[in-house]
C-alpha cells in the first residue's frame, strides 16, 4: 500500500523523461528493439521525451515512436552537430544550442528523470554526469539505465567495486537503478523519485 502511494505521488512530478543513447543503432537487433520498447513505454505512460535532438541511431528510433504516439518530443542539439545527427525529417520541437555543455544543462533542466540506453562515449559521459550531479545535490531526479542483454554489466560491476573499496558510499550507489527492459525500469524510477530525494543533498540548481 505504501509503495503504491509513493508511486502515485512520484507520477504527479514524473512527466518528462530525458533519454541518453547512441547516435548509432549498434550491431545487434536487441539494441534497436530496446529503443522502440522504451518509446512505447513512454507513450503508454503518457510521458514526454527530452533527448539529444538527433534523428539517427537509437535517438531517432525513440523520438519517432514517442512523436507518433502523441507525446511531446524536445530535442536539444548543438548547432555544430545538426548536419551530422539530423538526417531527413525531424520530429517534435528541436532546440539548437551553442555547445555540448549547454545541451546537457538544457536536457537536465527540462527533465524530471534520466534513462540511458546503450551508447558510446557520449552516452556514458552524460549518464555519469547526472549521477555525479545527484551525488552532489545539484538535482534530486532519479537516474536509471536499461541494461540490454547485459550491455552495462561491466559498468555496474565497476560501480559496485568502487563501493566495496570505499570510493562511493552504499547509499549513493542507490542513485543509479537498472533493469533489463523499459517497463521494469520505469516502475523502479517511479518509486525511486522519492528515494533519491532522501539520499541526495538539497542544493537546487536545476
TrEMBL record:
Belongs to the LOG family. GO terms for biological process: cytokinin biosynthetic process. The keyword DNA-binding does not apply. This is Cytokinin riboside 5'-monophosphate phosphoribohydrolase. InterPro entries: LOG, LOG_fam. Its EC number is 3.2.2.n1. The keyword Hydrolase applies. The lineage of its organism: Eukaryota, Viridiplantae, Streptophyta, Embryophyta, Tracheophyta. It catalyses: N(6)-(dimethylallyl)adenosine 5'-phosphate + H2O = N(6)-dimethylallyladenine + D-ribose 5-phosphate; 9-ribosyl-trans-zeatin 5'-phosphate + H2O = trans-zeatin + D-ribose 5-phosphate.
